[in-house]
Amino acid sequence: MTAALVRREDLAPGEVLCEHCTARCCQYFALPLDTPVDRDDYENIRWYMLHGDISVFVDDDSWYLLVHNTCDQLDDLDRCSIYSSRPTICRTYSTDHCEFDNDACYDRLFERPEQIDEYADALLGRRRRRGLGSLPILGAVP
Description:
The protein has one domain (8-125). Helix content is 19%, strand content 15%. The chain is built from three helices and four strands, in the order βαββαβα. The chain has a four-stranded antiparallel beta sheet. The model has no long low-confidence stretch (mean pLDDT 86).
């Protein structure tokens, strides 16, 4: 489904914003993270990001894990196929401040695990990374 180019403020009273959207809110979910303070915290975030289509963003000094995964219940028209029995989180979600007309501009966005390492290095100082030369060789006699 292609969304019409409609601005939120142009909707008539009672018109449903979702009728003009491609279900952007159903294409991902975000979970709050504790603000990282040490290398272990950044390593944990890097580990999360190694598990599929995961990003991390910071907005207003709050950190979030962003899981890019479309809801299995969307139909071919980007509508909820279980609308009458949808989960509570969906029922309570409001379009008042949804991302319909939001370009998803964050204070910080990390899309690759290496970016978390670089950011941690910038804040905490570079750490010594083990290269392949530092790994033991199997079967080697000392």
